[in-house]
């Protein structure tokens, strides 16, 4: 039976539309970082290279190589960790050109450095993409976190973030870092803005 994260890991990827406290374990990712507007062509190209690698891993058995521990699964959604430059933080309004980001796609636990190297080889055979040199593979662990599901336009996330901040204050918690994570459950190319589903997450600790 195919492993589907929407069904098997609901607490991480399909929370309710209100803040909840969870513990997020260590996870493996293909990652690429950058600065600037997420509506840019460069950002889209970086998303593309991540998906190329993710699907290269997913399709390995059909190409004649089955990693140890491999199982059928649905490719995980795109995620992003977001921050602002110092100049961006000082601005009274959000300046998207001052955004700092690391976007990523989670990989199953069976993915090792050997599997990663084979994925890179597969993608390189399709064409020399310089963005491959910017992609890294590693682990991230959010640990204790507050998250909620935001439904609607990305530009309206500020309302959900305020709900999360209120919850954090009410529960004697504090935000660990000004960075926050977003998990894009919906495909923005195929979904109306009002129906977009995005998981928002802050790393927190007790005061």
Automatic annotation (TrEMBL):
<dbReference type="InterPro" id="IPR008319">
    <property type="entry name" value="GyrI-like_CCH_Lin2189-like"/>
</dbReference>
<protein>
    <recommendedName>
        <fullName>GyrI-like small molecule binding domain-containing protein</fullName>
    </recommendedName>
</protein>
<dbReference type="Pfam" id="PF06445">
    <property type="entry name" value="GyrI-like"/>
</dbReference>
<dbReference type="InterPro" id="IPR029442">
    <property type="entry name" value="GyrI-like"/>
</dbReference>
<feature type="domain" description="GyrI-like small molecule binding">
    <location>
        <begin position="19"/>
        <end position="198"/>
    </location>
</feature>
<dbReference type="InterPro" id="IPR011256">
    <property type="entry name" value="Reg_factor_effector_dom_sf"/>
</dbReference>
